[in-house]
Amino acid sequence: MVNFNGTLTEEENSISLHNRGLTYGDAVFETLRISGKKIYFWEDHYFRLMSSMRVMRMEIPMEFTPEYLEEQVLKTVEAHEEAKAYRAKIIVWRKEGGTYLPATNDVTFAILVSPLKNPFYVLNEEKYEVELFKDHYIPSGLLSTLKSAQKLPNILGSIFAQENGYANCLLLNEKKEVIEALNGNLFLVKDYKIITAPLESGCLNGITRKQIIEILGAIPDYILDETPISPFELQKADEMFLTNVITGIQPITKYRKKTYDTAVAKELLGKLNAKARLG
């Protein structure tokens, strides 16, 4: 089942072949984690979605309040078999019509839901090797920070990772700065300093990235540095980890010949779980 403009319906009957998200990538989305009928960090997701729609010059419907969209997500969850937790995706696209120039800025939305195994974040301590993906670059700038349907480097990078036996790949911008992974933000740990790329580099404006930054602000043992990351810094780090709203924190165990510790990732994951329950 899929929630299509507020109505639960069969997925295969809901999407037109003239959908602008399909034909032009004219769409934005939010991926949510739900546990115990609670959407993790819902307020942050909601305001990021509204911001993305404004950047894309989409008309925001009057009914798109936080309460309405939260209700629609939870209604869709309830239509599925009971699970411990859920992944939900809100997709918003411009209505049909026009070519590059849209015929309207009005929007349509859909919500898709699938079950998750764990009701809270669990640290994956299995081998997790990454490599740089250098075939294509992410342009620095505002559009790259959005959760939009324009994700070709992420798709091609995922294929590259699978073909070469990597768990993930790290993406570069046109300045050859390391900005993020295929499916999350990147953090480096060096002594007491924790480094992540700034939004100006073109990394995703991640919801979990925001939570980790807030958590680090309350821990006096660490200093956060939002600064461009050179590929040469990767092998100098003591630890590297990725963040996204579904996994929480994923430690990187190996990059080329360097292996990494996971102590900071373990510490932060406990604090992230606590923040998710309270936030």
Structure description:
Strand 15 and strand 16 form a beta hairpin. This protein has 279 residues and is an alpha+beta fold. The protein has helices spanning 20-24, 42-55, 66-78, 152-164, 207-217, 263-278; strands at residues 2-4, 7-9, 27-35, 38-39, 85-94, 107-116, 129-138, 168-173, 178-181, 184-190, 193-196, 223-226, 239-244, 248-252, 254-255, 258-259. Helix 5 crosses helix 6 (263-278). The model has no long low-confidence stretch (mean pLDDT 95). The strands form two sheets. Strands 7, 8, 9, 10, 11, 12, 13, 14, 15 and 16 form a ten-stranded mixed sheet that branches. It has a six-stranded antiparallel sheet with strand order 2-1-6-5-3-4. It is built from six helices and 16 strands. The radius of gyration is 19 Å and the shape is globular. It folds into two domains: 2-116, D-amino Acid Aminotransferase, Chain A, domain 1, CATH 3.30.470.10; 129-278, D-amino Acid Aminotransferase, subunit A, domain 2 (D-amino Acid Aminotransferase, Chain A, domain 2, Alpha-Beta Barrel).
